[in-house]
Amino acid sequence: MSFSRRAVLAAFATLSLAAFPAWSQSDWPNRPIKIINPFPAGGGTDTFARPLAAQLTKQLGQTVIIENIGGAGGTLGAGRAAKEAPDGYTFFMGATHHTIAETLYTKLPYSLTRDFAPISVAAFVPNVVVMHPKHDFKSLGEMVAYAKANPGRLNYGSAGNGTTHHMAGELFKQQTGINLTHVPYKGAGPLMQDLLAGQVDMAFDGMGTSAVQIKAGKLKPLAVTSAQRSSVIPDVPTATEAGVQGFQVTTWYALWGIRGTPQPILDRMYAEMAKALQTPELKDIWAAQGAAFGGMPPKEFEALVASEIARWGRVVKEAGVKIDN
């Protein structure tokens, strides 16, 4: 074989190898896509993950399913997701909780920044301080005064150790100097069941799971934890207005790809997600939950994740909370 012929064949082989990934990626998706939700069904993540999956199904022409893998404050499902093949058919719907876990857990089976590729935030949701109606507190100030006079008498439930619900309570304790007993659950769904039954006194819950119960009169809202009042419950003051200056906690839910997923697929999923968030169907659902839309580009989302890890790391350190898993 002459040198020129070998060179031509080598060049052809190189072009063929380069073209194959492009062909396979342009064919994406050609089978169902899975989004792992690391919390049980019925929680705040589900509130946004399922409508988003339904809209993506319409846009992509392939079924997008939600797989719930709850436990360990969302870290069990995250660990499972991190082990999935980076082929563009598995994604991860995490939340603020996972930035907290980075410094809270001593032995995480994954790294949020190493094992996942940021796509975008789906929703920003203010938290709300809610109590079971058996308590007759008329304001956040009354609750704080009672807690100071009766240390440890009140408890608060969370969706699990290390979740936003949990650490919002720790931050609230730090800023008010009160003592509340933490009661962790395996997700927002089980927490809500016991909160409605009066088994726990209160929660720093996401608006996504509490809004319906507040409107039904089954939970008493004392304050929202956003900078402004919520359009869903406009008569409820912010925590700052209620006397706890600067207490702001927002839960966000976001989509990641598995690190190593081909960039064209990640780019396509971001574009489809941004498009989905502009549809009337999702706008109505988000508005009903008092949620603000995400859709920020991946680089901005990556910066948000870094800032949240740093912020909650300071809260974890001051609270002296560590979880061995």
Describe this structure in words.
- This protein is α/β, with parallel strands linked by helices.
- The protein folds into two domains: 178 residues, D-Maltodextrin-Binding Protein, domain 2, CATH 3.40.190; 99 residues, D-Maltodextrin-Binding Protein, domain 2.
- 46% of the residues lie in helices and 19% in strands.
- The protein contains twelve helices and ten strands.
- Strands 1, 2, 3, 4, 5, 6, 7, 8, 9 and 10 form a ten-stranded mixed β-sheet that branches.
- Helix 4 packs across helix 12 and helix 7 crosses helix 12.
- The chain starts with a helix and ends in a 6-residue tail after the last helix.
- The N terminus is likely disordered.
Brief synopsis:
The chain has 325 residues and is an alpha/beta fold.
Query: What percentage of the residues does DSSP assign to strands (E)?
Result: 15-25%
Gyration radius (Cα, Å) is: 22 Å
Q: How would you describe the shape? A: globular
Order of helices and strands: HEHEHEHHEHEHEHEHEEHHEH
Q: Can you tell me the number of structural domains?
A: 2
Which structural class do you get from the secondary structure elements?
Answer: alpha/beta
Number of strands: 10
Quick tags:
46% helix; 10-stranded mixed beta sheet; alpha/beta
List the helices and strands and how they pair.
Blueprint: H1 3-26, E1 33-37, H2 44-60, E2 64-68, H3 75-82, E3 90-95, H4 96-104, H5 112-115, E4 116-131, H6 140-149, E5 155-158, H7 164-176, E6 181-184, H8 188-196, E7 202-206, H9 207-215, E8 220-224, E9 250-258, H10 263-276, H11 280-288, E10 292-293, H12 298-319
Parallel strand pairs: 1-2, 1-3, 5-6, 5-7
Antiparallel strand pairs: 3-9, 4-7, 4-8, 4-9, 4-10
Helix pairs in contact: 2-11, 4-12, 7-12
